From TrEMBL:
Belongs to the UPF0391 family. InterPro entries: DUF1328. The chain crosses the membrane at residues 6-28, 35-58. Keywords: Cell membrane, Membrane, Transmembrane, Transmembrane helix. The lineage of its organism: Bacteria, Pseudomonadati, Pseudomonadota, Alphaproteobacteria, Hyphomicrobiales. This is UPF0391 membrane protein SAMN05192565_13030. The keyword Membrane applies. Pfam families: DUF1328. The keyword S-adenosyl-L-methionine does not apply. HAMAP family: UPF0391. GO terms for cellular component: plasma membrane.
Length: 59
């Protein structure tokens, strides 16, 4: 959940910086938000797959 929270924070910083005209900061924060969200999705999918595998082994 922490990765998702940091991705959202970076996204908000990107929106605010873009609105104020700081395009370099907005671009960097947007890229960081995209990377963190992708990492969150990968970890979440791995956890779900492992949970299903353990469930299959137990039952």
């Amino acid at each position: 959940m922490t990765l998702l929270k940091w991705a959202l924070i970076c996204f908000v910083i990107s929106l605010i910086a873009g609105g104020l005209g700081f395009t370099g900061i907005a671009s960097g924060a947007g890229s960081l938000a995209r990377i963190l969200f992708g990492l969150f999705l990968v970890v979440a999918i791995v956890i779900v797959v492992v949970a299903f595998a353990v469930g299959q082994a137990v039952f």
